[in-house]
From TrEMBL:
Catalytic reaction equation(s): tRNA(Tyr) + L-tyrosine + ATP = L-tyrosyl-tRNA(Tyr) + AMP + diphosphate + H(+)
Main location: cytoplasm
Source superkingdom: Bacteria
Stated role: Catalyzes the attachment of tyrosine to tRNA(Tyr) in a two-step reaction: tyrosine is first activated by ATP to form Tyr-AMP and then transferred to the acceptor end of tRNA(Tyr).
GO biological process entries: tyrosyl-tRNA aminoacylation
Binding of ATP, residues: K244
Keyword Ribonucleoprotein: no
Molecular function per GO: ATP binding; RNA binding; tyrosine-tRNA ligase activity
Residue span of motif 'KMSKS' region: 241-245
Protein family according to the UniProt entry: Belongs to the class-I aminoacyl-tRNA synthetase family. TyrS type 2 subfamily.
GO cellular component: cytosol
Name the record gives this protein: Tyrosine--tRNA ligase
Organism lineage: Bacteria, Pseudomonadati, Pseudomonadota, Betaproteobacteria, Burkholderiales
Annotated gene: tyrS
Length: 410
Protein backbone atom coordinates (compact mmCIF):
# COMPACT_ATOMS: atom_id res chain seq x y z
CA UNK A 1 0.00 0.00 0.00
CA UNK A 2 1.35 3.43 -0.90
CA UNK A 3 2.50 5.62 1.96
CA UNK A 4 0.14 8.38 0.67
CA UNK A 5 -2.86 6.33 1.78
CA UNK A 6 -1.44 5.67 5.25
CA UNK A 7 -0.56 9.31 5.87
CA UNK A 8 -3.57 11.21 7.25
CA UNK A 9 -4.06 14.62 5.70
CA UNK A 10 -6.24 17.23 7.40
CA UNK A 11 -9.83 17.52 6.20
CA UNK A 12 -10.16 21.28 5.79
CA UNK A 13 -13.16 23.40 4.79
CA UNK A 14 -11.85 23.26 1.23
CA UNK A 15 -11.84 19.46 1.34
CA UNK A 16 -15.36 19.39 2.79
CA UNK A 17 -16.53 21.66 -0.03
CA UNK A 18 -14.90 19.40 -2.64
CA UNK A 19 -16.56 16.38 -1.02
CA UNK A 20 -19.94 18.14 -1.17
CA UNK A 21 -19.40 18.87 -4.88
CA UNK A 22 -18.42 15.23 -5.44
CA UNK A 23 -21.55 13.92 -3.72
CA UNK A 24 -23.94 16.34 -5.43
CA UNK A 25 -26.60 14.30 -7.21
CA UNK A 26 -24.47 11.13 -6.94
CA UNK A 27 -26.05 7.72 -6.51
CA UNK A 28 -23.05 6.28 -4.67
CA UNK A 29 -19.47 7.23 -3.78
CA UNK A 30 -17.24 4.40 -2.57
CA UNK A 31 -15.46 4.55 -0.21
CA UNK A 32 -16.22 8.09 1.03
CA UNK A 33 -13.38 8.18 3.64
CA UNK A 34 -10.83 7.18 0.99
CA UNK A 35 -12.05 9.90 -1.38
CA UNK A 36 -11.94 12.50 1.41
CA UNK A 37 -8.30 11.55 2.03
CA UNK A 38 -7.45 11.72 -1.66
CA UNK A 39 -8.97 15.22 -1.78
CA UNK A 40 -7.07 16.21 1.36
CA UNK A 41 -3.80 14.91 -0.08
CA UNK A 42 -4.39 16.83 -3.32
CA UNK A 43 -5.01 20.03 -1.39
CA UNK A 44 -1.96 19.54 0.83
CA UNK A 45 0.47 18.59 -1.97
CA UNK A 46 -0.98 20.60 -4.87
CA UNK A 47 -1.03 17.44 -6.96
CA UNK A 48 -4.36 17.16 -8.86
CA UNK A 49 -6.26 13.89 -8.79
CA UNK A 50 -6.84 11.85 -11.94
CA UNK A 51 -10.55 11.48 -12.75
CA UNK A 52 -11.46 8.88 -15.37
CA UNK A 53 -14.59 8.48 -17.48
CA UNK A 54 -14.68 5.77 -20.10
CA UNK A 55 -17.21 5.80 -22.93
CA UNK A 56 -17.58 3.22 -25.65
CA UNK A 57 -18.51 4.93 -28.93
CA UNK A 58 -21.51 2.66 -29.56
CA UNK A 59 -23.51 5.50 -31.18
CA UNK A 60 -22.44 8.80 -32.72
CA UNK A 61 -24.87 11.09 -30.88
CA UNK A 62 -25.55 11.73 -27.23
CA UNK A 63 -28.51 13.27 -25.42
CA UNK A 64 -28.47 15.38 -22.27
CA UNK A 65 -29.00 12.27 -20.15
CA UNK A 66 -25.51 11.20 -21.17
CA UNK A 67 -24.13 14.53 -19.96
CA UNK A 68 -24.95 13.84 -16.29
CA UNK A 69 -21.55 12.16 -15.79
CA UNK A 70 -19.90 14.80 -17.99
CA UNK A 71 -21.33 17.50 -15.71
CA UNK A 72 -19.81 15.76 -12.71
CA UNK A 73 -16.49 15.65 -14.55
CA UNK A 74 -16.74 19.37 -15.21
CA UNK A 75 -17.48 20.09 -11.54
CA UNK A 76 -14.37 18.11 -10.50
CA UNK A 77 -12.40 19.79 -13.28
CA UNK A 78 -13.39 23.19 -11.89
CA UNK A 79 -11.97 22.09 -8.52
CA UNK A 80 -8.59 21.78 -10.24
CA UNK A 81 -8.40 18.06 -10.93
CA UNK A 82 -7.28 16.32 -14.13
CA UNK A 83 -10.06 14.67 -16.06
CA UNK A 84 -9.43 11.89 -18.56
CA UNK A 85 -11.98 11.34 -21.32
CA UNK A 86 -11.31 7.75 -22.31
CA UNK A 87 -12.68 6.49 -25.61
CA UNK A 88 -13.05 2.73 -25.47
CA UNK A 89 -12.04 1.89 -29.01
CA UNK A 90 -10.61 -1.46 -27.88
CA UNK A 91 -13.38 -2.44 -25.46
CA UNK A 92 -15.98 -1.58 -28.11
CA UNK A 93 -14.61 -4.52 -30.09
CA UNK A 94 -15.72 -6.78 -27.21
CA UNK A 95 -19.10 -5.18 -26.47
CA UNK A 96 -20.22 -4.20 -22.96
CA UNK A 97 -22.70 -6.78 -21.58
CA UNK A 98 -23.85 -4.49 -18.72
CA UNK A 99 -27.56 -4.75 -18.10
CA UNK A 100 -28.14 -7.01 -21.09
CA UNK A 101 -29.77 -10.43 -21.23
CA UNK A 102 -27.93 -11.51 -24.36
CA UNK A 103 -24.47 -11.27 -25.87
CA UNK A 104 -23.93 -7.81 -27.28
CA UNK A 105 -22.68 -7.76 -30.85
CA UNK A 106 -19.32 -6.00 -31.07
CA UNK A 107 -18.83 -2.99 -33.31
CA UNK A 108 -16.56 -3.01 -36.32
CA UNK A 109 -13.40 -0.91 -36.31
CA UNK A 110 -14.98 1.35 -38.96
CA UNK A 111 -18.09 1.95 -36.82
CA UNK A 112 -15.94 2.73 -33.78
CA UNK A 113 -13.82 5.26 -35.68
CA UNK A 114 -16.87 6.97 -37.18
CA UNK A 115 -18.61 7.26 -33.80
CA UNK A 116 -15.51 8.33 -31.89
CA UNK A 117 -14.99 11.27 -34.26
CA UNK A 118 -18.15 12.95 -32.99
CA UNK A 119 -17.91 11.93 -29.32
CA UNK A 120 -15.49 14.48 -27.98
CA UNK A 121 -16.83 17.22 -30.23
CA UNK A 122 -20.07 16.84 -28.29
CA UNK A 123 -18.49 16.21 -24.88
CA UNK A 124 -16.42 19.40 -25.02
CA UNK A 125 -19.67 21.38 -24.94
CA UNK A 126 -19.67 20.39 -21.25
CA UNK A 127 -16.00 19.79 -20.42
CA UNK A 128 -13.21 22.37 -20.39
CA UNK A 129 -11.33 21.23 -23.47
CA UNK A 130 -8.05 22.82 -22.39
CA UNK A 131 -8.08 20.81 -19.14
CA UNK A 132 -9.18 17.47 -20.59
CA UNK A 133 -6.88 14.58 -21.44
CA UNK A 134 -8.24 12.43 -24.28
CA UNK A 135 -7.08 8.82 -24.44
CA UNK A 136 -7.96 5.66 -26.37
CA UNK A 137 -7.69 2.35 -24.54
CA UNK A 138 -6.22 0.62 -27.58
CA UNK A 139 -2.98 2.43 -26.57
CA UNK A 140 -2.27 -0.16 -23.85
CA UNK A 141 -4.77 -2.91 -24.69
CA UNK A 142 -3.38 -3.79 -28.14
CA UNK A 143 0.24 -4.15 -26.89
CA UNK A 144 -0.95 -6.39 -24.02
CA UNK A 145 -1.03 -9.38 -26.36
CA UNK A 146 -2.10 -12.95 -25.60
CA UNK A 147 0.46 -13.45 -22.80
CA UNK A 148 -0.56 -10.22 -21.08
CA UNK A 149 -4.25 -11.08 -21.42
CA UNK A 150 -3.69 -14.45 -19.72
CA UNK A 151 -1.74 -12.78 -16.91
CA UNK A 152 -4.54 -10.23 -16.49
CA UNK A 153 -7.24 -12.93 -16.46
CA UNK A 154 -5.35 -14.72 -13.68
CA UNK A 155 -5.97 -11.77 -11.37
CA UNK A 156 -9.76 -12.28 -11.17
CA UNK A 157 -11.85 -15.36 -10.38
CA UNK A 158 -14.84 -16.81 -12.21
CA UNK A 159 -16.75 -16.84 -8.91
CA UNK A 160 -16.26 -13.09 -8.52
CA UNK A 161 -17.24 -12.53 -12.15
CA UNK A 162 -20.47 -14.50 -11.64
CA UNK A 163 -21.44 -12.14 -8.81
CA UNK A 164 -22.27 -9.66 -11.54
CA UNK A 165 -26.04 -9.35 -11.73
CA UNK A 166 -26.55 -9.73 -15.48
CA UNK A 167 -24.20 -12.72 -15.72
CA UNK A 168 -25.90 -14.37 -12.74
CA UNK A 169 -29.39 -13.92 -14.22
CA UNK A 170 -28.37 -15.20 -17.64
CA UNK A 171 -26.62 -18.24 -16.14
CA UNK A 172 -29.63 -19.15 -13.99
CA UNK A 173 -31.95 -18.70 -16.97
CA UNK A 174 -29.84 -21.03 -19.09
CA UNK A 175 -28.87 -18.24 -21.48
CA UNK A 176 -25.47 -18.31 -23.13
CA UNK A 177 -22.53 -16.27 -21.85
CA UNK A 178 -19.55 -16.06 -24.15
CA UNK A 179 -16.08 -16.25 -22.60
CA UNK A 180 -15.06 -13.00 -24.30
CA UNK A 181 -17.72 -11.14 -22.27
CA UNK A 182 -15.68 -11.83 -19.12
CA UNK A 183 -12.89 -9.87 -20.75
CA UNK A 184 -14.90 -6.64 -20.85
CA UNK A 185 -14.85 -5.79 -17.11
CA UNK A 186 -11.22 -6.97 -16.96
CA UNK A 187 -10.19 -4.64 -19.77
CA UNK A 188 -12.17 -1.72 -18.35
CA UNK A 189 -10.49 -2.38 -15.01
CA UNK A 190 -7.08 -2.54 -16.68
CA UNK A 191 -7.76 0.94 -18.09
CA UNK A 192 -7.69 2.21 -14.50
CA UNK A 193 -4.32 0.51 -13.97
CA UNK A 194 -2.89 2.04 -17.16
CA UNK A 195 -4.16 5.52 -16.30
CA UNK A 196 -3.44 5.31 -12.54
CA UNK A 197 -6.87 6.81 -11.91
CA UNK A 198 -7.89 8.11 -8.49
CA UNK A 199 -11.60 8.15 -9.27
CA UNK A 200 -13.70 6.53 -11.97
CA UNK A 201 -17.18 7.74 -12.88
CA UNK A 202 -20.02 5.84 -14.46
CA UNK A 203 -23.73 5.19 -14.47
CA UNK A 204 -25.32 2.97 -11.85
CA UNK A 205 -25.20 0.07 -14.33
CA UNK A 206 -21.38 0.30 -14.37
CA UNK A 207 -20.76 -0.34 -10.64
CA UNK A 208 -19.41 -3.86 -11.09
CA UNK A 209 -16.96 -2.80 -13.80
CA UNK A 210 -15.74 0.13 -11.70
CA UNK A 211 -15.11 -2.16 -8.73
CA UNK A 212 -13.09 -4.50 -10.96
CA UNK A 213 -10.81 -1.56 -11.71
CA UNK A 214 -10.36 -0.93 -8.00
CA UNK A 215 -9.47 -4.62 -7.45
CA UNK A 216 -6.99 -4.77 -10.34
CA UNK A 217 -5.17 -1.64 -9.20
CA UNK A 218 -4.54 -3.36 -5.86
CA UNK A 219 -3.36 -6.48 -7.72
CA UNK A 220 -0.85 -4.31 -9.61
CA UNK A 221 0.36 -2.61 -6.43
CA UNK A 222 -1.41 0.71 -7.01
CA UNK A 223 -3.52 2.78 -4.66
CA UNK A 224 -7.10 1.71 -5.51
CA UNK A 225 -9.40 4.19 -7.19
CA UNK A 226 -12.64 5.37 -5.64
CA UNK A 227 -15.80 4.98 -7.66
CA UNK A 228 -18.66 7.41 -8.20
CA UNK A 229 -21.90 6.36 -9.85
CA UNK A 230 -24.45 8.83 -11.15
CA UNK A 231 -28.18 8.17 -11.53
CA UNK A 232 -29.83 7.83 -14.91
CA UNK A 233 -31.64 11.04 -15.87
CA UNK A 234 -35.43 10.77 -15.98
CA UNK A 235 -36.75 11.85 -19.37
CA UNK A 236 -39.35 14.36 -20.50
CA UNK A 237 -42.21 12.05 -19.52
CA UNK A 238 -41.15 12.19 -15.86
CA UNK A 239 -41.29 8.40 -15.59
CA UNK A 240 -38.74 6.51 -17.69
CA UNK A 241 -35.00 7.11 -18.00
CA UNK A 242 -34.13 9.41 -20.88
CA UNK A 243 -33.91 7.38 -24.06
CA UNK A 244 -34.17 7.97 -27.79
CA UNK A 245 -36.20 4.77 -28.14
CA UNK A 246 -38.78 6.15 -25.71
CA UNK A 247 -38.78 9.55 -27.45
CA UNK A 248 -38.46 11.33 -24.10
CA UNK A 249 -35.05 12.84 -24.76
CA UNK A 250 -33.32 16.08 -25.69
CA UNK A 251 -30.45 15.61 -28.13
CA UNK A 252 -27.56 17.96 -27.49
CA UNK A 253 -27.44 18.82 -31.19
CA UNK A 254 -31.15 19.66 -31.43
CA UNK A 255 -32.14 23.15 -32.54
CA UNK A 256 -32.10 25.78 -29.80
CA UNK A 257 -35.84 26.51 -30.05
CA UNK A 258 -36.70 22.82 -29.73
CA UNK A 259 -34.29 22.30 -26.84
CA UNK A 260 -35.66 25.30 -24.94
CA UNK A 261 -39.29 24.25 -25.44
CA UNK A 262 -38.58 20.66 -24.40
CA UNK A 263 -37.01 21.76 -21.11
CA UNK A 264 -40.06 23.91 -20.39
CA UNK A 265 -42.29 20.88 -20.98
CA UNK A 266 -41.01 18.94 -17.94
CA UNK A 267 -42.94 18.87 -14.66
CA UNK A 268 -42.18 21.26 -11.82
CA UNK A 269 -41.10 18.35 -9.60
CA UNK A 270 -38.71 16.91 -12.20
CA UNK A 271 -37.22 20.35 -12.75
CA UNK A 272 -35.39 20.26 -9.39
CA UNK A 273 -33.78 16.89 -10.15
CA UNK A 274 -32.61 18.30 -13.47
CA UNK A 275 -31.21 21.35 -11.68
CA UNK A 276 -29.16 19.09 -9.41
CA UNK A 277 -27.84 16.88 -12.21
CA UNK A 278 -27.57 19.29 -15.15
CA UNK A 279 -27.13 22.83 -13.86
CA UNK A 280 -23.79 24.46 -13.12
CA UNK A 281 -25.41 26.58 -10.41
CA UNK A 282 -24.18 25.85 -6.90
CA UNK A 283 -26.34 23.85 -4.51
CA UNK A 284 -26.75 27.01 -2.44
CA UNK A 285 -28.12 28.89 -5.46
CA UNK A 286 -30.51 26.06 -6.29
CA UNK A 287 -31.71 25.84 -2.69
CA UNK A 288 -32.34 29.59 -2.61
CA UNK A 289 -34.26 29.44 -5.90
CA UNK A 290 -36.35 26.53 -4.66
CA UNK A 291 -37.19 28.50 -1.51
CA UNK A 292 -38.30 31.46 -3.64
CA UNK A 293 -40.70 29.17 -5.51
CA UNK A 294 -42.01 27.75 -2.25
CA UNK A 295 -42.56 31.32 -1.06
CA UNK A 296 -44.74 32.08 -4.06
CA UNK A 297 -42.51 32.78 -7.07
CA UNK A 298 -43.87 31.27 -10.29
CA UNK A 299 -42.06 27.94 -10.88
CA UNK A 300 -42.04 28.74 -14.58
CA UNK A 301 -39.46 31.46 -13.84
CA UNK A 302 -37.10 28.79 -12.50
CA UNK A 303 -37.83 26.50 -15.44
CA UNK A 304 -37.08 29.28 -17.93
CA UNK A 305 -33.73 29.88 -16.17
CA UNK A 306 -32.89 26.17 -16.50
CA UNK A 307 -33.98 26.09 -20.15
CA UNK A 308 -31.80 29.12 -20.92
CA UNK A 309 -28.80 27.63 -19.12
CA UNK A 310 -29.01 24.31 -20.97
CA UNK A 311 -29.70 25.95 -24.35
CA UNK A 312 -26.80 28.38 -23.83
CA UNK A 313 -24.44 25.49 -23.04
CA UNK A 314 -25.15 23.65 -26.27
CA UNK A 315 -25.75 26.70 -28.48
CA UNK A 316 -25.11 30.26 -27.23
CA UNK A 317 -26.59 32.93 -24.97
CA UNK A 318 -28.05 34.76 -27.96
CA UNK A 319 -29.64 31.53 -29.26
CA UNK A 320 -31.17 30.93 -25.83
CA UNK A 321 -32.59 34.46 -25.75
CA UNK A 322 -34.05 34.00 -29.23
CA UNK A 323 -35.51 30.63 -28.21
CA UNK A 324 -37.21 32.26 -25.20
CA UNK A 325 -38.73 34.94 -27.44
CA UNK A 326 -39.85 32.30 -29.93
CA UNK A 327 -41.49 30.26 -27.17
CA UNK A 328 -43.31 33.30 -25.79
CA UNK A 329 -44.58 34.16 -29.28
CA UNK A 330 -45.86 30.63 -29.87
CA UNK A 331 -47.50 30.40 -26.45
CA UNK A 332 -49.50 33.51 -27.32
CA UNK A 333 -50.62 31.96 -30.60
CA UNK A 334 -48.16 33.94 -32.72
CA UNK A 335 -46.35 32.66 -35.77
CA UNK A 336 -42.52 32.69 -35.79
CA UNK A 337 -40.78 34.75 -38.46
CA UNK A 338 -38.58 32.03 -39.88
CA UNK A 339 -40.90 29.13 -40.71
CA UNK A 340 -40.14 26.81 -43.63
CA UNK A 341 -41.91 27.35 -46.94
CA UNK A 342 -43.30 24.35 -48.80
CA UNK A 343 -44.68 24.26 -52.34
CA UNK A 344 -47.25 21.56 -53.11
CA UNK A 345 -49.45 20.74 -56.08
CA UNK A 346 -52.69 18.81 -56.41
CA UNK A 347 -55.27 21.37 -55.29
CA UNK A 348 -57.84 20.78 -54.01
CA UNK A 349 -55.81 18.68 -51.55
CA UNK A 350 -57.08 16.84 -48.47
CA UNK A 351 -55.74 18.24 -45.21
CA UNK A 352 -54.26 14.89 -44.07
CA UNK A 353 -52.37 14.50 -47.36
CA UNK A 354 -51.17 18.10 -47.09
CA UNK A 355 -49.78 17.49 -43.59
CA UNK A 356 -47.94 14.38 -44.76
CA UNK A 357 -46.53 15.97 -47.93
CA UNK A 358 -45.46 19.09 -46.03
CA UNK A 359 -43.50 16.96 -43.55
CA UNK A 360 -45.72 17.95 -40.63
CA UNK A 361 -46.98 14.39 -40.03
CA UNK A 362 -45.23 11.07 -40.71
CA UNK A 363 -48.31 9.43 -42.23
CA UNK A 364 -51.90 10.07 -43.23
CA UNK A 365 -53.18 8.09 -40.26
CA UNK A 366 -51.05 10.12 -37.85
CA UNK A 367 -52.29 13.31 -39.53
CA UNK A 368 -55.86 12.15 -38.88
CA UNK A 369 -55.06 11.49 -35.23
CA UNK A 370 -53.58 14.98 -34.88
CA UNK A 371 -56.71 16.51 -36.43
CA UNK A 372 -58.97 14.52 -34.10
CA UNK A 373 -56.95 15.75 -31.14
CA UNK A 374 -57.33 19.39 -32.11
CA UNK A 375 -53.60 19.74 -32.78
CA UNK A 376 -53.82 21.18 -36.29
CA UNK A 377 -54.38 24.83 -37.17
CA UNK A 378 -54.60 26.49 -40.56
CA UNK A 379 -54.21 30.27 -40.55
CA UNK A 380 -54.81 30.18 -36.79
CA UNK A 381 -58.09 28.24 -36.93
CA UNK A 382 -58.34 24.73 -35.44
CA UNK A 383 -59.10 22.06 -38.06
CA UNK A 384 -61.69 19.51 -36.87
CA UNK A 385 -62.76 17.94 -40.17
CA UNK A 386 -60.58 15.16 -41.57
CA UNK A 387 -62.36 15.50 -44.90
CA UNK A 388 -61.39 19.16 -45.39
CA UNK A 389 -59.96 19.89 -48.86
CA UNK A 390 -57.88 22.98 -49.44
CA UNK A 391 -58.08 25.01 -52.65
CA UNK A 392 -55.05 26.61 -54.28
CA UNK A 393 -53.56 29.38 -52.18
CA UNK A 394 -51.13 30.22 -49.36
CA UNK A 395 -51.64 28.80 -45.86
CA UNK A 396 -49.83 28.94 -42.51
CA UNK A 397 -50.16 25.40 -41.14
CA UNK A 398 -49.38 24.62 -37.50
CA UNK A 399 -49.14 21.20 -35.82
CA UNK A 400 -48.88 21.24 -32.04
CA UNK A 401 -47.01 24.12 -30.46
CA UNK A 402 -43.75 23.95 -32.37
CA UNK A 403 -44.26 22.75 -35.96
CA UNK A 404 -45.06 25.36 -38.61
CA UNK A 405 -44.96 25.58 -42.39
CA UNK A 406 -46.05 28.19 -44.92
CA UNK A 407 -47.63 26.10 -47.67
CA UNK A 408 -48.03 27.40 -51.22
CA UNK A 409 -50.63 25.08 -52.75
CA UNK A 410 -51.28 25.05 -56.50
Amino acid sequence: MNQAVVTKFPVTDGVRHALEVSLRGADELLPVPDWAQKLARAEATGQPLRIKLGLDPTAPDIHIGHTVVLNKMRQLQDLGHQVIFLIGDFTSLIGDPSGRNATRPPLTAEQIRANAETYFAQAKLVLDEAKTEIRYNSEWSDPLGARGMIELAAKYTVARMMERDDFDKRFKAGQSISVHEFLYPLMQGYDSVALKSDLELGGTDQKFNLLVGRHLQQEYGQEPQCILTMPLLVGLDGVEKMSKSKNNYIGITEEANTMFAKVLSISDALMWDWYTLLSFKSLAEITALKQEVQDGRNPKDAKVMLAKEITTRFHSASAAEAAEQDFMLRSKGGVPDDIPEVRLGGAPLGVAALLKQAGLAPSGSEAGRLIDGGGVRIDGAVVSDRGLKLAAGSYVVQVGKRKFARVQLS
